[in-house]
Amino acid sequence: MDFIRSPAVPKVEAFIKETPTRPPPAKLVLQPFDASSFAKLLQQPTAGVEDDDTEVVEQNITKHLPMDWSIKTRVRFFCRSELPATQLKTSQMASGLTSFVRCLDTQKEDENGLDISPATRFNQATYYWQHPHIPWMTLFPRNSRDNTGITIGERERKALAEDWDYSFRGLFQLLRARQCAYFYLCANGFTVLFRAAGTGGRAEIHAFMTPSTRGMRQALRQEGIEYSMPLKKDGPGGLNKSLEGEDNSTSPTNGFTTKSEVINDAKESDGDEDDDEEEEDDWLQSLGVDEKEIRKIQTAHHRKLKVQEMAEDFSDNSLLLIEGVECQGFFSFLLNAKSTISSVGRLAGVPPTLLSPVAFPKATMQHLTTRSSKVRMDGVDYCSIEVKGTILPSFLPYVCQLLGETKDTFSATLASSMNTLAFSKATHKLLMDDSAGQNQNIEIGKTEPNNGGEDNAAGQVFGKENLSDCGLQAYVVENMCRTGSQAVTLLERVCYDKEYGYAWS
Q: Compositional bias of type Acidic residues: which residue ranges (predicted)?
């Protein structure tokens, strides 16, 4: 989108020149995003990108930075002026550690005697909490190749399981009490994002799980846990289901709907399915069809429905959303399910990794790796900071706000963990669905034209106030609670200009 064609922004040329990601555009037209150049800056190849076939990525401009709920593995900042130092003095290191552990906002608490320099505040953002922590193992990502040849004995497995049980219980209680805004549970085969009420436009506590399989969904149904699949595409045979749990068709194999469902509706439809099957059998028998042939027809039909239901297993579209009181049942399910702790593979016997921005029982404080350098592009020198590790969603809003206080322009490139991309996709989809529903109500006269905006604003304020003691800065909490079409997105590249705001793609 050529956003600089608008007469409202006559000086975008200066903004583009300040970013180290492309040469100055000609005739005030924004040039396409060059994926290969960013790949070189990140020192990793980008598959499938050629010079002649560079994809054009749509760019947007907003005054605020959209939230990205995927876990980042690498972020690199660029600026023509000096960035916060990564080689810290003793006072800066101590103040950063103290501010992080005590969840202090150093800008508001001037009398605490702590160092409040940009280097200290940047250092404060580079910490997070993790459980379990085994120094000789890489527990995120769980499929790391470094975990080869490692075995855990039965005694160690039991001790790890007991510690993890206590840690998971404590962290979930922090989330319910809104003392923790979000946390991740990373198992070998799936990842779960738990979020407190008020975040992402949801009024209740909720959890995303990705990817899911038919077996996992069936296990949740058997436990009476209701869920929805917001990213599920309409499939053949009407197998898709709305977010409200209203199913379009059911599977005669087990009497359950193929997706999320209200359990009472499933029980009622179970009897209807039996009646339909009996009528079909009677009809086929009246035509003289042999009983064996009838069973073959039924088996083939059931197999077809099963294949359709499993079509998107292990993909982002298989993401599950569990909300409200169902989260307690889902928590108990993860706590007791045997599939949570894998018995085979590289991390056999090691419980899932818990990641949180605030402290929780038995957690270990971890630190991101930072490295400062200088980059010369198109004859211009840029200062750069590269951050590697498990980068949680609250990191980027905080650092961008910090840099925006003292820098006129800067930019950042980001690399994401592929297993967590669905969290941002689902959040964006749900926000769009909510907005579309409100617009539809306005059109048919069910609500007043201004009620939708007022309700959204009230919900954001309510969520922000409820999370005021979650240990994160007010600006980060505001980003988490924001709603609208540009509140959440997947970020690969961010450019900031003090006059115009954030340009992102």
A: 270-283
